[in-house]
Description:
The chain has 799 residues and is an alpha+beta fold. The protein is 26% helix and 25% strand. The protein is built from 20 helices and 30 strands. A seven-stranded mixed sheet has the order 4-8-2-15-12-13-14, sandwiched between helices. Strand 17 (322-332), helix 10 and strand 18 form a beta-alpha-beta unit. Helix 7 crosses helix 8, helix 12 packs antiparallel against helix 13 (431-440) and helix 14 runs parallel beside helix 15 (562-589). The two termini are 46 Å apart.
Amino acid sequence: MAADRTTSAPTTLTQATGAARGTVGESTLRPDGTLKVTGEFAYSSDLWHEDMLWGFTLRSPHAHAAIRSIDTGEALALPGVYAVMTHADLPAETHYGLEIRDQPVLAKDRVRYHGEPVAIVAADHPETARRAAARIAVEYEELPLVVDEATATAPDAPLLHPGRRDHHAAHVPHPNIVHRQPVRRGDVAAARARADVVVRRDYEVGMQDQAFLGPESGLAVPAEDGGVDLYIATQWLHVDRDQLAPVLGLPADKVRLTLSGVGGAFGAREDMSMQAHACLLALRTGRPVKIVYNRYESFFGHVHRHPAKLTYEHGATRDGTLLYVQCRIVLDGGAYASSSPAVVGNAASLSIGPYVVENVDAEAIALYSNNPPCGAMRGFGAVQACFAYEAQMDAVAAELGLDPVEFRQRNAMSQGATMPTGQLVDSPAPVAELLRRVKALPMPPERVWEAAGGPVDVRALPGGLSNTTHGESVVRGVGYAVGIKNVGFSEGFDDYSTARIRLEVIGGDPVALVHTAMAEVGQGGVTVHAQIARTELGVDRVTLHPADTRVGSAGSTSASRQTYMTGGAIKHTCEAVREEVLRRGRERFGASHPAWAAAEAPRLADGKVVTEGGEVIGDLAEILGDGAIELEREFRHRPTEPFDPRTGQGFGHVQYSFCAHRAVVEVDTELGLVKVVELAAAQDVGKALNPLSVVGQIHGGSAQGLGLAVMEEIVVSPDGARVRNPSFTDYLIPTILDTPAMPVEVLELADDNAPYGLRGVGEAPTLSSTPAVVAAIRAATGLSLKRVPVRPEHLIDGR
C-alpha cells in the first residue's frame, strides 16, 4: 500500500500552471476550459450543415393511453415538410434499450409515459417542423395508471410489458417488477433478539434530474455507401451504435458515430434520446438532419434518478456495535427498463453502507410504472441507500447517546472487511480516517446577525437575495455522513476499454497520437489521457484524436470508470509501444551502443531512451526515423461475477470508493429556509492523476448532492403521472449563490489492483453530501426529516 499522501484544496489549486500539459500527478489545466468559459466551445447544438433539415418529435400528452389512430396528412401538406414518420414507417427493429430492449423507437399501440415519442418530422426550418408536428392528429384512449408498488403489483394491475422475456424475468415476483436483488448474510432474527436498541424508519427520495446545461442534440448525415454518420453528444458511442444499427436496418460498420461537444451528462446520456430519430429522418430524406431539444423537451427526452421508498431497521448493542441491518428499497424505474437492473444491484449490494455488519437482510426492487423512465444518474442506486442508512446511523447514535461520528467510526469497515455480499474489501477502506479528517477541519466562524433593519449582507442568510430575514430565528446545525460506491461495471459485465497509440516524429520531435472512443463529458479525460501518454512515452507533444467508433469501444463515461479503464488502456498500449521502441532500438543500435545490451529497464524520457540511472542511450527521432509505431490494445479490470439471485453473494464489484462530508447549515426555523454555509469533504482517491481535476470532481459531486438535499425534484402528478415542472424556472438547481465553501481533504492510498493505484472519484461525493446536509438541518431543527429534498413546509409543519 502506498504511503498516505493528503492534499487540501487550496494547495492543489495553486499547483496549476498556464500550460495545458503535464505528467501523471501534476495539476494540469483543461485545454477546453477557456473556450467553455468564454462561450467559444463548439457543442453538439452548434453543429451545422449547409443543406440540413430540422427534426422535431411529437410526444404524448398522456402517461398511459391506447393509440387508436394517427393521421399525418395535414402535417405532410405543410410547405417545407420533407418527411413525417410514425411506428408504421420504421424500416427494421422497432425497439431498443440499454439492458432490455423494451423501448419503442416510436410508440405503436400505446404510450406508457407522459412525453413518449409518437411521431417525428423533418422540415426546412425548426419552426416549420414544430408546426407540422402540431398538425398530426392522434386519437388516444386513456388507460388505468401504474404509479407505485401498490398499483404495479395489484391483482388487476395493467401489465406494462406483458410477455417480457429476459435474463432477469425468472427472479422477479411480478411482470411489473423489472428486477429484484436480495442480499442475505447471517441470522437477522437471532441478532434482533440480542439488540439493546432497535430503530426502524421509512424514508423517501424524490426524482432528481441530471440537469445538464447542454440539451440533447446531434446531426445525422446520410452517406454515399448507404450508411449514416452521426455527430452526437453521448456517453457511450459504441452502445449507441449497437442499438441504432438494428433500428436502421444497417450493419454496424455503416453506422458511424463521432462525439461532438457535450454540455454535461451525469448519466442521462447513457440512454438514446434523439439518435434514432435523426438517423431515420436523414435516411428517409437523403438530407442531413439536425435535432436540438429545447429545455422543456429535454426533461422528457432523458432518464432521471430513480425515486425511492426505503424501509430500514438497525439493531445495536448498548456499547455501540451494529448487530444487524434489515432493509427494503423500492425504486421506481418508470415506463422502460433502461439501466434499472444494474441500479438495483448497486442499491442492494451497497445498502448498509461502509460498515461492518455480520447480519444483513436486504432487498431492492425496481418497478415498471407510468412515471417518467429512470436510469443512470451519478451515484447510481447508492445515493438513495446512503440517504437512508446514514439517517439511521444518526438515529441509532442518538438512541445510544453516542457522538454520531464516533458511532460510525466504531463500526467502520477497513481493509480486510467483508461486504454483506461476501466480497472481501482487499484495498484501503479508510472510513474512520475520512470521518476524523472532516471532523477535525476548522469550523466556519459563527455569524452574529445584526438586529432587524441593521446592516447585514442578505446573500449570506437563508433565503438569500429574496431578503426574507435579517437573522431572526436563524439556527446553525452541523451534520456528518459517509458513503461507499462501487467503481466500474459490475456483476460479471465484460468491462473493457480500447486505446490506439501512434508514435512518430513530426518536425524533428516525437509526437504521440492517442485515439480512444472515450466520451469527454466534463470529467477531465482530455487532460488525464494526455498526461498518461506523456508519462509512459516520455514525449511532450501529445494529441488526442476525436472520439469515434472507428476505434474499439471505451465503454461508457459513467460508473467513475474512465480514468481507471480508458486511462488503463492508454497506459497498457503505451507500454506496448515503448517495448516496440526498445526492440527497434536494440535492433538498430545494439551493436554500436554496448549500453543497450547492459541497460536495465530502459525507459523513455524527454524524447530519449535512458537507463534507470539516467544515462541517455538513444534518441526517439533516430529510432523511429521516417516510420511510426501504431498499436491498439484492450484493457480489462479483474473479473467480477453476478450476485446470487437468492442470497446476493458474489464478487460483484471491482473496486470501492469512499467519501465523507461535514455540512454546516443555517436554518430560518420560522420561514423554513436553509443556507448551506460549508460542505467539507474528505475522500480517498488512490492516486490523484490530476489533483486539480480531482478536487473539481469532488466539488461537483458535492453540489449535486446538495441540490438533492434541499431543492431538486421532478414533480409528477399522482393522479395523471404528468411532469409538472419541466423547466429551470420550476426545477431548481444550485446556483453560485447556493454553493458554499467546500474545503477538501484528498487521501491517496493506492489500490494495488488499479492503474497507478487510482480509485474512481466522480460519484462518491454525490452520496454522502445529501445526508450530511439533511443531518445538519436535523441538528438545527430537531426534526426527523425522512424525505429529500427537504422543502420549507417540512421545516414548518414538522414532517
